Amino acid sequence: MRYARAPVQARGTTGEYLAESSGFDQSITDTITARLPASWLIAALQLRFVDGRDLAYADPSGIVRFYDPTARIKGHSAALVDRAAFEAILEAQNLACVWAIGGEKNVYSDRGMDGFGGRVTYTRLHVLSDGVLTCRDRFQSVDRPTFSQLRALAGE
């Protein structure tokens, strides 16, 4: 199957480092996950790795412009980038930052397989362009339950 080329080019902003505790060498007891800057972002911001404890990357003047706070704080890995520096790179390279967020909300019965209260599926785009962050709904669908599914949900 051949796919049509997208009308715009896309660049990822981060990569992921993953070391699982279940690895063959058994050298770690916890799984480690970290977000790292993508190579194009490292080049554009002239970043260098400066601190392995904080997973910090600094520019040539020594100012930290990118880091993953979960090196010190428990939680999901995250990528934090200096907003002013990031927006300057976006503007210089005629880019916009886009986050695509999708989700689904469902209602099911814990009493049996037939209880269903409905489903909403959505996709939203958050776009940072020219210093302005906007949200755009791109897709939403609603699956409504049948009367018998609602009765089963209520335990009838």
Briefly summarize what is shown:
This protein has 156 residues and is of the alpha+beta class. It has 2 domains: 12-95, no CATH class; 96-156, no CATH class. Helices cover 16% and strands 40% of the residues.
Assembly status:
single chain
H/E series: EEHEEEEHEEEH
The DSSP helix count reads 3
| Major sheet characteristics | 4 strands, antiparallel
Shape: extended
Q: Please mark out the parts with pLDDT under 50 across 5 or more consecutive residues, or reply none.
A: none
Extended strand count: 9
What is the straight-line distance between the termini?
A: 49 Å
Helix content: 10-25%
Provide the β-strand percentage band.
35-45%
Structural class: alpha+beta
How many domain units?
Answer: 2
Radius of gyration: 22 Å
| Mean pLDDT rating | 86
In what order do the strands lie side by side in the largest sheet? 3-4-5-6
Q: Could you name the key traits of this structure?
A:
156 residues, alpha+beta, 2 domains, four-stranded antiparallel beta sheet, extended
What does this structure look like?
The structure is a single chain. With 156 residues, the chain is an alpha+beta fold. 16% of the residues lie in helices and 40% in strands. The chain folds into two domains: 12-95, no CATH class; 96-156, no CATH class. The protein has three helices and nine strands; from the N terminus they run ββαββββαβββα. The protein has a four-stranded antiparallel beta sheet. It has a three-stranded antiparallel beta sheet with strand order 7-8-9. It is extended, with a radius of gyration of 22 Å. The chain starts with 13 loop residues before the first strand and ends with a helix.
